[in-house]
Amino acid sequence: MSEHAAPAVKPADDPAFQLPASLAGLQLPMLGGGLAMLLIGMGLANAVPAEYEMPRFGMSAYLTAFLYVLTIVLGCLFFVLIQHLVRAGWSVVVRRVAEFMMFMIFPMAFLFLPILFAVFREGSLFVWTDPNFATDLHLDQKMWATKLIFLSPGFFVVRAAIYFAIWIGLAVYYWRGSVNQDETGERAATDRMQFWSGPATMAFSLSLSFAAFDWGMSLAPMWFSTMFGVYMFAGGILAAHCVITLLTYVLQRSGAMRDEVTPEHYHDLGKYMFGFIVFWTYIGFSQYMLIWYGNIPEETEWFFTRQEGGFGLISLSLIFFHWLIPFFGTMSRRFRRRPGLMAFWAAYILILHFIDIYWLVMPEARAITSHGHTIPSFGGAIGIAASLLCVIGMSTLVLGLVLRVAGGNRLVPVRDPRLRESIIFENI
């Protein structure tokens, strides 16, 4: 598309920038249905038969759903920060979709409360809250006492409050700066957001890494990996680009932003999807290779657990279905310029992202005895249904809130000074 052939920038109140009525009508059904599915899923998760020896299954299924949605929300926050940091022009027409998702950090803070309460219920989610854990596994008491300085309920709550304070603060600042600019047209707002994007990115990266240690890695408190936070980051950013692609496509199919978002934008979103598929694979392989080569029992046990039972099949499936297939599916320029195809790959990768988070969390839901450990399982048909209902319910609930926020705001930053640059954007 050449500049002289580009469509004119529409007025700020053009219907193309409003949420289509067909999607606006889904708000209440999604909110009610999502909440119902989440509650039913939690009920089933807590009813997993005792024969599976998985006393922490209920809260683990909830944590899996929470981390799945949270990584996407934080990935969208990172997308917004990076676009301002590099003064990106191409992404303006899709940035508001990321901002809608970024703003969901507020309900995610509320949905974190069950996890927060679980810290004060011995052994209901984190094994380090069980006072008999070190004794049952015959751990060195001096070493364990040192670990408990960090793994203590009070300090856990303080750290969680700091993480959410950082994320909420960043989301509010960039949300207000963007939507206020819709009304004022103040160009200086863009400069201010760009100015703070560097420190914001550093604060975001540190908080995400430590949150991953707290809420993911501490499920197995004797295991450690300095790359775990980066692994969670890579998966979350990949999933965020998929959500932005998929939601943009749905909005366009419903009649919004048809002239503003072009194959050029899907092409660039596809580049990011492809790049983060490679990055996620690189981090995952590097983490595994270094631990395998070091062959230290405290490190290898975590991967050994995920090579037992059905989780061994998941480990292999992640290699082929999370990396190899979407790698070739998103590599071609011709594929990346087809919006429908990119929406398909986005939905596909989001399913695999859930399986990845499930693989990280659920093996630790098993019972651990002084004689060793049980083989992790899926909790039977009830356990599988519970896990799916939890994640579908929480995702639907959050998407309902996204539609509610989108209904009261424009779908595109209509007075961003780089809007025209974004509309006429061409890939080289």
Termini separation (Å)? Answer: 11 Å
Give a quick account of the main beta sheet: strands, pairing sense, barrel closure: 2 strands, antiparallel
Radius of gyration: 22 Å
Specify the structural class: mainly alpha
Averaged pLDDT: 93
- The strands making up the biggest β-sheet line up spatially as 1-2
| Poorly predicted segments | none
Order of helices and strands: HHHHHHHHHHHHHHHHEEHH
- Quick one: how many beta strands? 2
How many H/I helical runs?
A: 18
TL;DR of this structure?
The protein is mostly helical and 428 residues long. The chain contains 18 helices and 2 strands.
What does this structure look like?
Helix content is 70%, strand content 1%. By secondary structure, the chain is mainly α. It has one domain (3-423). A two-stranded antiparallel ribbon has the order 1-2. A hairpin with a 2-residue loop joins strand 1 (368-369) and strand 2. The protein starts with 20 loop residues before the first helix and ends in a 5-residue tail after the last helix. The model has no long low-confidence stretch (mean pLDDT 93).
